[in-house]
Each structure stands twice: as structure tokens, then as C-alpha cells.
Amino acid sequence: MYASANAALIVAQPTLHRAGIVTLLQEAWPAVGITLHADASGLLPILSQQLYDLVVLDCAVLAGPACHFLEQLRKVRSTLPVLLLTSNRLSADVRQYLETHRTSAWSWLPYHATPAAVAALFAAHLPAEAPERARPKPAPRLLPPTPFSRRELEVLRLVVQDHCNQEIANQLCLSVRTVESHRRALLQKAGAKTLVGLAVRAVQHGWVMV
User: Domain Response regulatory spans what residues (predicted)?
Assistant: First the structure.
């Protein structure tokens, strides 16, 4: 018997990086159920019995050769969207494997990717909006094309690119205090509680180009 969709599986050790991914999912897709595993043992039988919209797999938890596990995974669920978390440089054997078995459902992401890059990959496989009954509060109604001023959009673009306040101030010739004011306005207008949530919404609504 298959589990219902609208679910994500995260296979990674309990680190701050995993906590950040969980927070991003909870803020942007509150109706998506999240299952956590700290290692890959027993993962293949689980995937043969349950359906997930997305699997996030940290290559660091694989006990053996990554390519061997990926081949087994492909045989179990060839169309399952899988996001591989790796170091900044993809190993040659894994890169060759992914090129040999090209699929739009599989992608990889370095550990230090920006929240916007992570959100963009999630958005490709998860529903754009959660069901209304699952939302703790109704989403704010945004007026087209955006609810932001031109200057706020400039700040938003740099926030999504993971620039700090000082870097934004230097690029836009503003004071740090003015940048902080713009960031507060962005959070309020977007209905986001954190900068991660702001970046996710910016990507989802097309306010910035990733």
C-alpha cells in the first residue's frame, strides 16, 4: 500500500544544514509531510512501498560507493525526484553516472548553495501552494506585479543572492540602517517571518530571477 503524496523524505545527518532545509520546507510548503532519516540503511525498501514528491539525499550518509547506491535507487524508483547534496565539487564518478543516466528528476546541490537555489529546486517538484485547510493563516494577497518599490526589489535581489547588510549597502550606496529598514519592509509585505522564507517566496512568485 502506497502512502499519499504531498510528502518529502530527507536522508541526512542531524546537522544545521539539514535543519535549514527542514525550516525552508515548513515555511514554504506547510502541508508537505516531512520524514527524516539519518542514514541510508533501509531506504530502498521504504521507497519501494511509499510515494514521495521529493527525496533529499546527502551523499555523505552513503556507506558504500555512491554510484552503486544510485543505480539501486534508479531501479526502485526511476522517476522519483532526487536532490543529491554534495560538497562544492561533484565527484567524477557521480558526475559521470548522472550524465550517463540523464533525467530531469535528478539534480545535485552543493552544501553552501543559497536559499534561493534550494527553493528553486524544491519548487520544481513540490506544489506551488499548500491546501487552504493546512495553512495556519491565509497568505497575504499580493497586488500585481509585486507589492514592492523599485528600491525594495533591488534589496530583495541581493538578499536572495545571500548578501549581508553591509554588502547590500555598499552595492546600492545606502547606509546599513536603510538596508535594515528595507529588509523589514520586505518581510512584512511578503508575509514572511525569516529571510529564508522571503527568498522562497521571491522565487515562487517570480519577484527575482535565480
Answer: 7-126
